[in-house]
Each structure stands twice: as C-alpha cells, then as structure tokens.
Amino acid sequence: MSNKYRLDKELLRRGLVVSRSQAEDIIRRGFVSVAGISVTKPGLLVSENVQIVIKSRVSFVSRAGEKLHSVLDILQLDLSDKVVLDVGSSTGGFTELALRMGAKKVIAVDVGTNQMHPSLRNDPRIELHEKTDIRNYVKGSTTHIDVVLIDVSFISLRQILPYCATLIDRNSVIVAMAKPQFEARLDLPKAPPSPDQLISSGSGLPSINVAKATSPSVKPLSTRADLPWERAILRKSSRDIVKHKGVIKNDKMRREILKHLEDSIQNLFIIIDKADSGVAGARGNRERFYLLRKAG
C-alpha cells in the first residue's frame, strides 16, 4: 500500500512547483487534476504514484497578478518607466505584472523567504528583500518610489499604510488590496508601531511590542473603533469570519468593514479611486483595491 501525502506537498516533492504557497494557489484556482479529476483542495491526500497533471499554463505566477490585472482599466494605473515598491511580494504576482506593464524597477519586500518564483528571482530589474517587514525597511537615500503595491495577509492595512507613507511623496500613488477578513479586528493599536517596537514572534514573523512608545516620525491613522457602533460591527464580523472559516459571507458586513477602513485612512491619504477585484480570493473573499495618494 503506497503512502499518501497532501496534494500541495506532493506537487512540491515532484518538482511541479517551487513552493507550497504556489502549489496551494494553483490547486485552488483549478489548474490541477488528480487521476483525471479536477481538484481544488490543497489538503487532499493522494498516493505517491497517482497521476497528477497541471492542466494549463498559468497566466501569472500567482492569483495576485490576476487580481491586480482585473482592476487596471478602472484604476487607470500607469507603471511605465516607474519605480515600484511591492509590499508582500510573495511569489511575485504584482511584481510580474508591474514588469509586464513597463516598470523599470521593482523593489520586492516580504517577511518570508524563498517564495519568489524562479522566473523572476534572477531578473535584474527586481531588488528582492526577503525576511523583511516593510515596517523595518529602509529606503535608499537616492531612490524615489513612484508606485507602491500592497498585498499583505494576517495583518490590517491600518498597520502597514503609515509606514508606506514615510517612503513616498505626494506625487507617488499607492495601490492597496484590502482583505476584509483581516480588517475586521478589534485588537489593532490606535497608533502604528515604530520599527523598534517590532520583535520576533514564535512563528518567525514580526509581532508588536506594545510596551514601547510609537515613533513620532510615523503619523498614526485616525481611529473610530472606540465608538460603540464601530466596535459592534467589528465584533460581529469577527464572529462571522470564525463561523465561516475565514470567509465573509455577508456582503453588507463586508462593506461596513471596508467603510471603517476608509474612515481610518482618510487623515493620511486621499482615496482617488477604488474597485472590487474581478477575481475572488482563494477561499472566496471579495477583496477591494484602493488607489491612494498621500494627503496634506
């Protein structure tokens, strides 16, 4: 009797993908078949000798590229000859699309390691910073960033955007993908942490040492979560997320969460435009892109 393994791990073991994150992505997108049957569950147990086929060529190295591509016409984003900062670059979906659109350089920043797709890793136009939290990233003194692209998970944009604001001027723009399941949190600090507040957590990812003072150089976002109705929205949405295993099923609740995010960032940014992604998240969440410019 042959051993059985998770499908995402088996794809990696056979050398069909370069990372488990890429395996999970293409499985959920329906590009993988097992014994002739299309599957979408990365945790499916398969035998070591079963036939596994990647059914078609993936147009982007990750779903993130497809998501950003789906809103380009609405946001009218021009990346030609621009320097782009990709926050949460991961496999490189945003980075790849930026280069396709003519960006002359992409600074890719991610807390993980060995996630960038091999087709991108050695591209001379990419400056890759792995094991780097954007809140610790120090921009070169001569580098002017024209566009910031943000795709982060397990953290709210409210904790990321204030740091991005310190890296750009008012001629730059930010395109941030908001994931409502990660914006529905009650435990966010009222002000963003400074770089020296960041300490290593047990997972190896950065966490926040709230005992230290906030850096005055990073302007905090406005906060309305202390208002009873705001807290009620976030508390209810948090329960809904747990109930549905990380997916927000209630569209009214989703809109309320995103409205709270918009209210929170308006003291630092002007919302030029916004558009819902035409490609759903891996688990079905509907994400929204914001085109932002620094206020003031």
Describe this structure in words.
With 296 residues, the chain is an alpha/beta fold. It has two domains: 4-54, RNA-binding S4 domain (Structural Genomics Hypothetical 15.5 Kd Protein In mrcA-pckA Intergenic Region, Chain A), CATH 3.10.290.10; 63-294, Vaccinia Virus protein VP39 (Rossmann fold), CATH 3.40.50. Helices cover 27% and strands 20% of the residues. The chain is built from ten helices and 14 strands. The chain has helices at residues 7-13, 20-28, 63-70, 72-75, 93-100, 118-121, 161-165, 180-183, 228-243, 251-265; strands at residues 4-6, 32-34, 37-39, 45-47, 52-54, 83-87, 105-109, 126-129, 147-150, 173-178, 198-200, 206-208, 269-276, 288-294. The strands form four sheets. Strands 8-7-6-9-10-14-13 form a seven-stranded mixed β-sheet, sandwiched between helices. Strands 3-2-5 form a three-stranded antiparallel β-sheet. A two-stranded antiparallel ribbon has the order 1-4. Helix 1 packs across helix 2 (20-28), helix 3 packs across helix 5 and helix 9 crosses helix 10.
Give structural attributes.
Structural Genomics Hypothetical 15.5 Kd Protein In mrcA-pckA Intergenic Region, Chain A; Rossmann fold; 27% helix; three-stranded antiparallel β-sheet
